[in-house]
UniProtKB/TrEMBL annotation:
Encoding gene (name): dapF
Protein name per its UniProtKB record: Diaminopimelate epimerase
Pathways per UniProt: Amino-acid biosynthesis; L-lysine biosynthesis via DAP pathway; DL-2,6-diaminopimelate from LL-2,6-diaminopimelate: step 1/1
Known catalytic reactions: (2S,6S)-2,6-diaminopimelate = meso-2,6-diaminopimelate
Localization, UniProt: Cytoplasm
HAMAP family cross-referenced by the UniProt entry: DAP_epimerase
Subunit description: Homodimer.
Length: 257
């Protein structure tokens, strides 16, 4: 499956359990010798929800949240669902050719990002090359967001890994760059922790929207254009982030890995 080109191998383990670890995740994600994907998604039964979801990046690291993958879950299951994740309970509803997901409230607390030491998350007093003073936010996983004049002029493939592995981010970090075209429209690119440059990052879109709202750059609803397509983000009355966009089933198969 994929969400705007951010592609997944989704394992349906609701009935029969499937063991996934870092080595198996890397083998599945390898685009030359495995199936190939940005993330591996394991859908299991839920004890207090309809289903559960675990997520591994292509490098084998397990993460707590993935917005694009969350939209795939109700499409796979065929109905609206509650989903237990390491980041908490999410609710996803079928809509059009995809889904709308309540991603919960963003956190700007430095401990929640987390950062190695306390600092102002509205504008971290840090710089990497031409990128400086990002907003830091956690939307189930950690992100920094830079607002720039031109997202295509930034060498994200070079700066992305430098920022991701900076020791100020003890759990590493996702890196987003964005340019605001209007209060209800922006363009962005993401260097994803454990995956690199991606065509789309759902939590990155949520983080970027949340950062734009924090800095009064964006309206309560906005369109975010990513290399793989567009997402719609909105802020609910209680401060939750609502993400809407497509989710696509590509094929079903079996593999011996």
């Amino acid at each position: 499956m994929h969400g705007l080109g951010n592609d997944f191998v989704v394992v349906d383990a609701r009935t029969d359990p499937v063991a996934i670890d870092a080595d198996r995740a890397r083998a599945i994600a390898d685009r030359h010798t495995g199936i190939g994907c940005d993330q591996i998604i394991l859908i299991g039964p839920g004890s207090d929800t309809d289903v559960s979801m675990r997520i591994w990046n292509a490098d084998g690291s397990e993460v707590a949240a993935c917005g694009n993958a969350t939209r795939c879950v109700p499409v796979l299951v065929g109905r609206d669902v509650s989903i237990r994740t390491a980041a908490g309970i999410l609710h996803a509803a079928l809509e059009g050719d995809g889904a709308t997901v309540d991603m919960g409230k963003p956190s700007f607390d430095w401990n929640a990002i987390p950062l190695a030491y306390a600092m102002d998350t509205r504008a971290l007093p840090l710089a990497w090359g031409e990128l400086a003073n990002p907003v830091a936010v956690n939307v189930g996983n950690p992100h920094v967001v830079f607002f720039v004049p031109d997202v295509h002029a930034v060498p994200l493939e070079t700066l992305g890994p430098d920022i991701e592995y900076d020791l100020v981010f003890p759990e590493r970090i996702n890196v987003n760059i964005a340019h605001v075209l209007a209060p209800d429209h922006l363009v962005m690119r993401t260097w994803e922790r454990g995956a690199g440059l991606t065509r789309a990052c759902g939590t990155g879109a949520c983080a970027t929207f949340a950062a734009g709202r924090l800095l009064d750059l964006l309206a309560p609803s906005a369109r975010l254009d990513l290399p793989g397509g567009s997402l719609r983000l909105a802020e609910s009355g209680d401060g939750h982030l609502l993400m809407s966009g497509p989710a696509t089933h590509v094929f079903t198969g079996e593999a011996s890995l």
